[in-house]
Design brief:
With 216 residues, this protein is mainly α. The chain has one domain. Helices cover 66% and strands 0% of the residues. The chain is globular and about 45 Å long.
């Protein structure tokens, strides 16, 4: 009988780090105050785990390690990166409140830093639009795509990404830029890779099966 041990996937150090990061984010999420009371998603660990792990499965180990360092350092100095992410989104969804009650109290980003982030945002919005054109039913379940579509009740993919990038340390952003550049050179689509992870974690074989299972 042939040795089948090579077919058994042992958990890697990166897998453990991903789980650590998702739990770390969850802990910060639990300490995030939501206007109008606690949000229902703050009690839904399985969904949170699936969505965040889907993203981190696309990240290489150095990026994961750097972001975990960011979360740990935030705890040390009294910051909450999850709270800050949602606060930064309000620059679009509630601009007056953002200018008055949030902007003075979170780290200010330099023009150079904003420009770097916007190059990433443009690439990823294009990837998301391409994915939605090829998987329209799965696309309907996504956030609206662009900041122009934001409302006080609905935050777009673009605005969410911009808020998240704004919380990364310079080191983490640099490693994230390298990931985006690598995927671009390889002709890959990060949205497609992330949602492929999401549907696999949800029990589907692949994107095609998940797309076919969506209601018309």
């Amino acid at each position: 009988m042939a040795d089948q041990s090579q077919d058994i996937q042992e958990p890697s150090a990166a897998d453990g780090l991903r789980e650590t990061i998702v739990r770390h984010e969850w802990d910060q999420f639990q300490r995030t105050d939501n206007e109008g009371g606690r949000a229902s998603c703050q009690g839904n660990w399985p969904m949170f785990h699936q969505m965040r792990l889907s993203q981190f499965l696309t990240w290489p180990a150095p990026l994961l390690a750097s972001y975990e360092d960011d979360l740990t350092e935030a705890d040390r100095v009294g910051r909450n990166l999850v709270t800050e992410k949602y606060a930064r989104m309000m620059a679009s969804t509630a601009p007056e409140q953002y200018r008055r009650t949030i902007e003075p109290y979170i780290p200010r980003l330099s023009e150079e830093r904003v420009a770097r982030q916007e190059r990433i945002v443009a690439t990823q919005v294009a990837w998301a639009a391409d994915f939605r054109s090829r998987y329209p039913k799965l696309g309907q379940a996504m956030r609206v795509l662009t900041t122009a579509e934001d409302t006080p009740e609905a935050t777009s993919f673009e605005t969410y990404l911009r808020g998240e990038l704004g919380t990364y340390s310079d080191r983490t952003l640099g490693l994230y830029e390298e990931l985006i550049a690598t995927l671009t050179r390889q002709g890959c689509n990060l949205t497609e890779e992330t949602i492929a992870n999401t549907v696999r974690l949800g029990g589907f074989a692949d994107l095609a099966e998940a797309e076919a299972a969506q209601a018309a």
